[in-house]
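User: Can you fold this complex?
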Amino acid sequence: MSRHWRSWLLWGVLSAALAGVFAAGLTVDSAQGSSWRAEVRSLFLPGATSHGHYQIELKCNACHGAAFGGREALQEACVKCHGAELKAADDKHPKSKFTDPRNADRAALLDATQCVTCHVEHRPGITRFAGVTLSDDYCAICHRDIGKDRPTHQGLAFTTCASSGCHNFHDNRALYEDFLLKHAAEPALLEQPALPERNFAKVLEDLGSYPHDRYPVKPLGRDAIDAGSNLKAPAPVVDDWLATAHAKAGVNCSACHREKEPAGEHAWVERPSHKVCTTCHEPEVKGFLAGKHGMRLVQDLEPMRPALARLPMKHDAGDKPLTCIACHGAHRFDTRAAAVEGCLACHDDTHSRAFKASLHYALWQKESKGELPAGSGVSCTTCHMPRVSHRTPDDVTRILVQHNQNDTLRPNEKMIRSACLHCHGLQFSLDALAEPKLAAANFKGQPAKRIESIDMAKRAEARAEGSRRKAKDRGQGG
Amino acid sequence: MKPMNPLIRPLVAGGIALAALTAAAAEAPSGWSYKEIADALHAIMESDRTVYTRNVVNRLQNEEKVIKASEHWKDDKALPLPAQMFRYGAEMVAEKNAGFTYSLLSLWPVNKQNAAKTAVEKEGLEAVAKSGQPYYKEETLGGKKYYTAVYPDKAVAKACIACHNDHKDTPRRDFKMGDVMGGVVLRIPMK
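Assistant: Here's the predicted assembly.
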């Protein structure tokens, strides 16, 4: 064999091997379970993924559609995960505003029919707060003349539109003018601060989706246990279970441990997944899957683990898989423990570490000891997984925990309605949320600056009152 | 060719007739002018809008005083405003890519986003305010040609003027019953 020929052979073999390696990284869906394949696949990332999506970045199809379907498929993927949230937030800039031909000139400058116009992924160099990749002056594209319509806005710099306490592009439910006025007179601390109470037990009877037939609501004792030989006696889990709302409401072992097989048979499952929880807690699980804790499960990836996180986490928590029981603890399901220790078992950033020195936590402890009434303490979840009102398909209003920790996280004014206003006035809430240092110290201290939004709304109202009076004097008006 | 089975014959004939009929039905709209289509669509919009304002808002808010209409109807547990009702419909139509778009605008808008933007909108709103009659014109927006119709939007109930004349952001406080308060602008893309 000539040397020439042998070099070609070597080149051929090496090229084929290299192509094989790349193909192995690309073809295996999400490159799950194989670390070298994941390494190879990550070489295809066009740039570091933002904090919003890094957890699922190796599942390329999650966003890029099956066969890299282009912009439309991309948009569809955004809406699939984020659409409902935007609708619920009364999105102030829905797509229809930009498809309307009368706005064609504006849409040509800012095509907000596509999420990626403002939120480009894989571009760490230009990615700013909340995944925005536009420069700061985007509001001015359409609203540069706002000072003409609103004298209160004259002379304001374009960099201030989205300042804390002013405007958000999507969600302004706590910032609109009449809301500011309605809450203008509130003191920093309300007279009767209290959280809404969860009402699951109260509305159980009305829930059509609840398995009443198999697990009628009635207290169960030790002798009612239906685990049979699957339970290796003596089991401490029985005592744990007996102390729960589950046992008091007739939720027997089989309710969670027997899953319906595709064939229709019910088989014993030693470690049930979050899917079993949806039987009774569907909206809660939905929230969990929509947030940072559960988003990998939706993509059929292995559960998130603290070791994979970008936020500072405790070292010894690294390998804990984040499923429902990571925070709720199987069999005990102690919601109070979940609400503080559930978080602090892993989270180790400044804000989290400051929590136990905060006034909020002091109230929480007092409530735990029974020194304060239920609903007066503040845990991590009071703000980050708030109790919200939820309408079920059979029109029952449930007060339940929003398990998507991201739902109200950014911009933080989204927390005002779901958390702050249960105890604080609006002015105080706006002021406190606008100070990053205060937030880092877990709100130990007082806000130093006054946000002007409410004052501006009052000035606008006073001006309108003047104009109403003038019209009346002229004998106008209906 | 074999003669057709007498039983099959009427079936085939029926099929051909049905096909011809459906074709005729599908063809019919092409016989419609842009103006006729616009007028027909507007007739629905105006009727629905009047029914909502008279039988829901005006009756429950102004006559029976049972419930208010409010811009923040969710927070205030109130009725959506007639203009909001109209806009939500328009947004839903846009989401469905129905092929045409419409909005409620005015020369004296409460919401400044409802002011005239294009030259045709301005001209049309001024024309309908003066004449009380519809106005039609072709216009080009974003490189596409549209048949644009503007219809007067009149104060058909006391609720209209009571609310607008008192609103914080209104630039005009002397609307009277029957006044043209603005206009419905309807656009059909032209082939």
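The CA atoms of residues 155 and 163 of chain B lie 11 Å apart. The radius of gyration of chain B is 23 Å.
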